[in-house]
Specification:
The protein is mainly beta and 297 residues long. Helices cover 8% and strands 45% of the residues. It has two domains: 142 residues, Macroglobulin (MG2) domain (Immunoglobulin-like, Sandwich); 143 residues, Immunoglobulin-like, CATH 2.60.40. The longest helix has 11 residues.
């Protein structure tokens, strides 16, 4: 079920002090206890997706949050609080939706005329409480007459690993579970993205994340050994947490430790970044994300 509100249902004002407190809290949430930035130890917000990032007056826009962490269930119905609008102009909407559903907002048809602008960037804030800790994220959505930018589109992930000593290549869909045995020391994953029309995307930025094990003390590590990467992905291949492909060691930090038995959540976030932006009006705002479960029995 999708929860929909119209931006014409607005609060007369928003307490500016509360808004400032919210913005300050964004810099304090999530990262302080992480051994590596790509490891989601405690629950943390990894992405906020708005479809599409550039919209026209009259469009209905969907919003979704991605929270990472070993204890976070992507099917959870925990409450997400959404805030959309410009508090300094007195135009503001707040609503709630379960985590596992989209939150939707309908853009008023005459909003640009009312504001006297050709285009405007709108703040979108999402907050959710996980394990007693409130997490918040802030993103922008652009309203304009002729949208160009679109979200990157992750169509799948390709997994390369050894199964009983034989090289396997499998296609994964969002939400899949993959079980890998201990006959290989590493597993590689590659993002598949759709090629969009000219000007729809600029420079894609890839970010891979992994949780600690949800059923034991295990940990996965990004492994940057060139020979190991090429053994699974081919000659000249590159892999890192910031590339389209990533290689994880299944046997400790340097692939020479103990088998890291456990169950892990793996997340991929792809963002559209401006190759040459001269200001906020040229920033790219697109985001897409993908997650799956990796089981090491």
């Amino acid at each position: 079920m999708k929860h929909t509100r119209n931006m014409q249902q607005i609060h007369p004002f928003l307490n500016r002090a509360l808004w400032l407190v919210l913005l300050i809290s964004l810099s304090a949430c999530g990262d302080s206890d992480l051994p590596e930035d790509y490891v989601a130890v405690a629950p943390r917000i990894l992405a906020l997706r708005i479809t599409e990032p550039e919209v026209s007056p009259g469009d209905t826009v969907s919003m979704r949050l991605l929270v990472g962490g070993a204890t976070v269930d992507q099917h959870s119905d925990m409450t997400v609080t959404w805030a959309v609008g410009w508090p300094e102009n007195g135009v503001y909407l707040e609503g709630e939706a379960p985590y596992n559903t989209d939150y939707q907002v309908t853009i008023p048809p005459g909003i640009l005329d009312a504001l006297g602008e050709d285009a405007v960037d709108v703040n979108v804030t999402a907050s959710v409480t996980v394990s007693g800790k409130t997490l918040s994220a802030l993103k922008r959505m652009r309203i304009c007459e002729h949208p160009v930018g679109r979200n990157p589109e992750i169509t799948g992930v390709t997994a390369n690993f050894l199964a009983e000593g034989v090289h396997e290549t499998l296609a994964l869909s969002d939400g899949d579970t993959l079980t890998v045995d201990s006959s290989g020391k590493t597993a590689a994953f590659t993002a598949l993205t759709e090629t969009l029309e000219d000007q729809a995307n600029d420079t894609l930025i890839y970010s891979w994340y992994v949780s600690t094990s949800s059923v034991g003390p295990g940990n996965l590590y990004v492994y940057d050994d060139k020979d190991a990467i090429e053994a699974l992905l081919g000659p000249g291949a590159m892999a890192a947490e910031f590339r389209p492909s990533v290689l994880y060691s299944l046997f400790g930090e340097d692939a020479d430790g103990a088998w890291q038995k456990g169950q892990y959540n793996v997340y991929l976030v792809v963002r559209d970044n401006a190759g040459a932006s001269s200001g906020a009006a040229e920033d790219r705002l697109g985001t897409d994300f993908f997650c799956f479960t990796l089981v090491l029995p």
